[in-house]
Amino acid sequence: MILQAENTVPSLVFIGDPVKIWVDGFEGQYSAEITTFSADGAVEKETDSLDFQEGVAFWTPRTEGIYRIRVGDRELRGMAMNLPPPLNEEALLEQLPRQGQRLLAGDRFTILAMGDSVTATGDYPTMLAMMLRRATGNQQVSVIERAYPGRSNDASVRNFARDTKGVDPNLAVIMYGLNDQGARVPLPAYLEQTEWLVDHLREEFDADVILLDPTPDTGIVLPDRSGQMIEPSKIFRTQTYSAARRDLAQEIGVPVADTFEALWGEGGESLLAVGEGLWPMFPLHYSKPFTSLIENGGKGDTIHPNALGHLALARAVFDRINGFSEPGRLELSGQTRWVDGGVETEILARNLTPENLSGVLRFYPIPQESVAGEEPYEIASGNSARFVFRWPGIEGPEDLLMPGIEQVFRQPGPYVVILDQWRDGNQARGVHVPWSPTLDFPLQRYVTDAGVMEVSLLVGDEERKVFVTIPEEEPVGRIPLQEKIQVGAETTWAVGELAYTRFGGATSMEATVDGNLDEWSDAFWVPVGERIQARWTSGPRDFRERVEDCNLEWSFAAGEEGLYLAFRGTGNTRADQFAVYFDPRSPEELGTAGPYTWVGGSFAKDGKLTVRAGDSSEATSGIQFDYQEERGRLSGEIFVPYEFLNTSAWPESGDLGLSIVWTHRIEGRKPTFLMWAEDGHPWNTRWYGVVRLDPEGSLPYRVRVK
């Protein structure tokens, strides 16, 4: 039998509040060994006497931290928190303009916590609610959590209706980024999905929203799965995403909690020291939040904060609500420009403190790569200094489209992480360093016919036109955009890429789902197998020896009750998988962030095909599928009822947003991802193609410029 605690929230109390402990059969005085683990790494041990009466005793914590109570061979863990500071009601109403008055009036106040496994495995929302109840006296503050391991902005958007069903939130706290950055979600998609969530929480519930910076990844002092030491800069791998999201938050009027800084604190004399300094706030395992890495020499869970880490997160959100923000040492800004033989960025650092500052600035321009340069500084109070670094791997405009580099320079980039290192501390921040002069192919989506089309190019405040030819004979393709621009006496480059995909066509008909495609003789077919379609999150990737190793075509038909899909092609698909994504929204919404549904298929080694619905479909049955294979040629059919698209019919406009990702696997090789209409990252609606019902004449192209 273990010790048990009974509190309003199990194992969480404020200092001065008693912890009720009971053990069946205990009576009288028992000696207890009490250990407190603090956020600064201190470990305090004391011995106390617990007086059990009918199996119940009380103990009152006096120090903030994770406590461990041992009585004989029995153990109880929990955490004691300092009382929250008094509330600044004026600041609260400024940060929570929609629902703050309700909180202060003592009315029902529901916090909706949305996030990934960091939120799912910890209690920061509960701690925040406890702080708000204590600070306001409002005992009707409650928490509803919609957080899941592996969750990203995209999954939150597509499951938004399900996650908010039956929920009436007054405040939404949102933390995404670790999975988004780790999966190389394009920065524009991350920002558009964030804005979509904020807009819908405001429009549907009149809720206030607070964004939380994603937390540090502290695994830098441990080897990865291959035994290699992890690059230290991984600890701040999300900071460029956070910086871009902060810029967005300022535009749309959403407060951001300094949750990254809340864990990072004053840092340390090196990045490795920062990682070790965070041990007290991370657990042995995410299922053991009242443990600490200092109990096991830093070995354990380096992603998900423990109870002390979540206390720091909760306190950062409370501080933001209370209008408190810790000022930084340096204000950092910058501009990026073309120079002979490459790209350089000039950084302006301004001393915001009343003291003279000295240290070293280190520049990390490419995610999770080594430092590109460092500059020592001595800056007097109120003064500024300028520093310059050169971007590695960039010699000419074509290099901006290289994998890895292209991701950094996508709109609204570029962003760079700057580590400010001083004698016994450091701070890592993402900084926007836009082009000077402003040169930009704006993120655009066009629907156009083959032939010559105009593409917008912004040069400062001036809009210019670039003419590009879409070849009529090619259903898919990409065209690099490189424009040499003269701005005054300065010569510079505008760089982008245009990707085009001809619409698919769907025929109104009913089909027999048996894998025989005789009835599809008059169908429209789209390619899923061209070299240009082999891409993944890091860029073009084709590990096929020949295109024929996996070369497919897909077609579509609209029935009365659902959508038919057919595929045919060549290759060995015995280990392959595929996913088809659907966006039935209006044509005006296609190509924007928003919810979608999907079905996924997989082939077993014996050739058996299985197709199932994705996580955002309300329907559970009705999908039909069959498949044939003979002499290296394959054909298959799938029927998906419209209810799996969360609709009742083909879109009234005639246009259905749709995307296909086929994963081809051959033993001994890396997988090849073949995509119709995608740009390497399938989990958002921004790049979906379009299937038009019963088209007349030639089909147009969906064109995206980035």
From TrEMBL:
One Pfam annotation, family name?
Answer: Lipase_GDSL_2
GO molecular function: any one?
phosphatidylcholine lysophospholipase activity
The entry's keywords = Hydrolase
Keyword Hydrolase annotated: yes
Tell me which residues make up the SGNH hydrolase-type esterase domain: 113-310
Question: What PANTHER family does the annotation carry?
Answer: SGNH HYDROLASE-TYPE ESTERASE DOMAIN-CONTAINING PROTEIN, THIOESTERASE 1/PROTEASE 1/LYSOPHOSPHOLIPASE L1
This protein is called: SGNH/GDSL hydrolase family protein
Taxonomic lineage is: Bacteria, Pseudomonadati, Verrucomicrobiota, Opitutia, Puniceicoccales
